[in-house]
Design brief:
The complex is a heterodimer of chains A (about 110) and B (about 110).
Chain A (H helix, E strand, L loop, with lengths): L3 E3 L3 E5 L4 E3 L1 E3 L6 E7 L5 E7 L5 E3 L5 E5 L4 E6 L8 E9 L4 E5 L3 E6 L1
Chain B lengths: L3 E4 L2 E4 L5 E7 L5 E8 L3 E10 L2 E4 L6 E3 L9 E3 L8 E8 L8 E2 L3 E5 L1
Parallel strand pairs in B: 2-11
Antiparallel strand pairs in B: 1-3, 3-8, 4-5, 4-9, 5-6, 7-8, 9-10, 9-11
The chains are: A mainly beta (about 110), B mainly beta (about 110).
């Protein structure tokens, strides 16, 4: 069965520092990969997604992620974070071949302090 | 467009009570789904629908019922509430099931005593 592992449950960083949130998924022939963000007391919204093509995907708010098929990873990065990036980040995968839609990881809480 | 709306925002129930969580979308999306969010567990799929009249179970369906009589609405029914159903519930909709962006509602916080 498809699964998603977010390797860090909490990531504390200082403002303007770079950050990487790590995500691994179980191997499959064809997957679609997503990062969603949840600000406090809100629903989730899409940051970016990988469907096919270029392995480097750019999203909103300066975030980007790289799809690495050999390592079955989809890590999220931002070169310089702001206080407003404090939120919970979810990696998710859909596997059309397996018939599973949007399996979420357990989330990573990014805390940005000054 | 209002997007995905959910009511109520908060609810307190006693064990054994039943209730319906409402979800509506105005984007003419075929695919709708219900998730529950628990601390340290991420989001887990309860039920989903690929169109009016078609529903199916997700990962954690026990204790919940759904129906989809219209494209717009996808209510979630708790048949006999249990403390284990204390959670935050999110409804989502999208044009398709696998590669399309899912749009989430603001959530319903449910406490079962």
């Amino acid at each position: 069965a498809q699964s998603v592992t977010q390797l860090d449950s909490q990531v504390p960083v200082f403002e303007e520092a770079p950050v990487e949130l790590r995500c691994n998924y179980s191997s499959s022939v064809s997957v679609y990969l997503f990062w969603y963000v949840q600000y406090p007391n809100q629903g989730l919204q899409l940051l970016l997604k990988y469907l096919s093509g270029s392995t480097l995907v750019k999203g909103i708010n300066g975030f980007e992620a790289e799809f690495n098929k050999s390592q079955t990873s989809f890590h999220l990065r931002k070169p310089s974070v702001h206080i407003s990036d404090t939120a919970e980040y979810f990696c998710a995968v859909s596997d059309r071949q397996a018939g599973t839609a949007l399996i979420f990881g357990k989330g990573t809480t990014l805390s940005v302090s000054s | 467009n209002a997007g995905v709306t959910q009511t109520p925002k908060f609810q307190v129930l006693k064990t054994g009570q039943s209730m319906t969580l409402q979800c509506a979308q105005d984007m003419n999306h075929e695919y709708m789904s219900w998730y529950r969010q628990d601390p340290g567990m991420g989001l887990r799929l309860i039920h989903y629908s690929v169109g009016a009249g078609i529903t199916d179970q997700g990962e954690v369906p026990n204790g919940y019922n759904v129906s989809r009589s219209t494209t717009e609405d996808f209510p979630l029914r708790l048949l006999s509430a249990a403390p284990s159903q204390t959670s935050v519930y999110f409804c989502a909709s999208s044009r398709g099931r696998y590669q399309e962006t899912q749009y989430f509602g603001p959530g319903t916080r449910l406490l079962v005593l």
